[in-house]
Amino acid sequence: MTARTPDSARDIPEATVARLPVYLRALTGLAESGTTTCSSEELAATAGVNSAKLRKDLSYLGSYGTRGVGYDVEYLRYQIAREIGVTQDWPVVIVGIGNLGHALANYSGFRSRGFRVVALLDADPDRHEEVVAGLDVRSFEDLESIVADNAVSIGVIATPAVAAQSVADRMVAAGITSILNFAPTVLSVPDGVDVRKVDLSIELQILAYHEQRKSVAPGAEVVS
Amino acid sequence: MTARTPDSARDIPEATVARLPVYLRALTGLAESGTTTCSSEELAATAGVNSAKLRKDLSYLGSYGTRGVGYDVEYLRYQIAREIGVTQDWPVVIVGIGNLGHALANYSGFRSRGFRVVALLDADPDRHEEVVAGLDVRSFEDLESIVADNAVSIGVIATPAVAAQSVADRMVAAGITSILNFAPTVLSVPDGVDVRKVDLSIELQILAYHEQRKSVAPGAEVVS
DNA sequence: AGGAGTTTGTGAACGGGAGAACAAAACGAG
DNA sequence: CTCGTTTTGTTCTCCCGTTCACAAACTCCT
Ligand SMILES: NC(=O)c1ccc[n+]([C@@H]2O[C@H](COP(=O)([O-])OP(=O)(O)OC[C@H]3O[C@@H](n4cnc5c(N)ncnc54)[C@H](O)[C@@H]3O)[C@@H](O)[C@H]2O)c1
Ligand SMILES: NC(=O)c1ccc[n+]([C@@H]2O[C@H](COP(=O)([O-])OP(=O)(O)OC[C@H]3O[C@@H](n4cnc5c(N)ncnc54)[C@H](O)[C@@H]3O)[C@@H](O)[C@H]2O)c1
């Protein structure tokens, strides 16, 4: 019987943290369709996970359900949002406004999920005349002042791979402590800085591996 | 002593499969910089993983190193590429040529890693006049014939979330067995079809969670 | 040829996550 | 108030993945 600190039941497993946003999305969907209460079974189906896993995940946050009834959609949604930290708005800077940077800047889904793009930066002076998604593309040299003025702690790297490490170094020096990296490179950053990478080529290669094996052995597998 | 089938040492752990593309990228980098031989330590550092893990991963493919020496960069690169299946070219279709679809279509990294975009499809007739990255944007109705004519088995979904499931259903019916999904929805597909999802909002939310906790407890953590 | 030095490949210990199963709690009917 | 039904929260077990540590294998030097 661990005396559970009721206010801050800390250290949520990483695997659970990665699923909380999925639950949040599912709950938002349920709320929009008018559902006010749902069981772990329903929510699990909507989120595409096992219901036991869902319940265990939620138990790390606290006891927000009612036995025999289920969960209040709106209440649980708020609790998860609070736990993740998306009840507040997070300012974000995007560096590298090329093909991908444009798409990211124009994406409305970030805003609706608690993130606000405060600046678009690019090293190429030709880009600086452009206005993307209502924001001026500014010089990369402005990074430090923008980070300081807007209390930015999250940065997105969408530059070519060769530039990524130097951009990351500069971000870290400017005070950014979380980086989402789209460039296909391993970034090295000091302790205390989180890096997550998104590599589309790797995803395709994983699919190709399984695809190749389907041709010989029909052992099918669904990776979600 | 499991009699290791030398030609097909099958069932590589999923976690290893996900890292093989990283090793491949690291090896390509080493090869380009003129390195012909490397130790597991060097390669692990380049790929950003533990060297013991790297060696164990490679051991699933076979014994391609030489004790006391290391690995032949070019030889190992080929072996990994063959194992993943990227020695051949994989035809790919992209559905939903909006912000993200444009970026994907223009991305040269796919081509250089064994993937060839054979068609860009969109439901919006206004898009059909467009030429992106040297390809006509074609009607979604052409899906079946394109898949059949080009033996496409991999599809990319970059449509809004509401359309994603119906696009996936249509892809599966047309014969596609691997899907990379960018829409923030859970797709349900029959057994035998692989789905991988890329959700940028989830990545940001995971960063936000850790960021939020940094403010209170300085227990830093690097997630790569 | 033999020994010293390197580096691989793998056995074994460890930790974390997934899922089954169940006891505890809430609710409603009678 | 009591019993039956529903559903949560949690315990327990199993499996996968990570990491350590070391014997086996190879090279080079003397
Ligand atoms: N486009 C895609 O769909 C896609 C897919 C997967 C991965 N990626 C990766 O994302 C990254 C960006 O891709 P892209 O297609 O947008 O490339 P891009 O060449 O279109 O854009 C890169 C932008 O970064 C800017 N830049 C270069 N060096 C910079 C620096 N030091 N500081 C600031 N800005 C700098 C360039 O001026 C350019 O505008 C690449 O690393 C690419 O490998 C892209
Ligand atoms: N843009 C981004 O950076 C970004 C980031 C994260 C996630 N996403 C997700 O990626 C998806 C695409 O984003 P986007 O910004 O490119 O959206 P978008 O609206 O710019 O483009 C969507 C395209 O899909 C087409 N489409 C709609 N229904 C279709 C159907 N049934 N069949 C074929 N085509 C159809 C539309 O005509 C449009 O061209 C969305 O689900 C979005 O949530 C985008």
UniProtKB/TrEMBL annotation, chains A, B:
Entry keyword annotation includes DNA-binding: yes
Record domain CoA-binding: where: 85-186
Compartments (UniProt record): Cytoplasm
Keyword terms: Cytoplasm, DNA-binding, NAD, Repressor, Transcription, Transcription regulation
InterPro entries the UniProt entry points to: CoA-bd (IPR003781), NAD(P)-bd_dom_sf (IPR036291), Rex_actinobacterial-type (IPR058236), Rex_DNA-bd_C_dom (IPR009718), Tscrpt_rep_Rex (IPR022876), WH-like_DNA-bd_sf (IPR036388), WH_DNA-bd_sf (IPR036390)
DNA-binding positions: 22-61
Gene3D superfamilies listed in its UniProt record: NAD(P)-binding Rossmann-like Domain, Winged helix-like DNA-binding domain superfamily/Winged helix DNA-binding domain
Subunit structure and binding partners: Homodimer.
Protein name, as recorded: Redox-sensing transcriptional repressor Rex
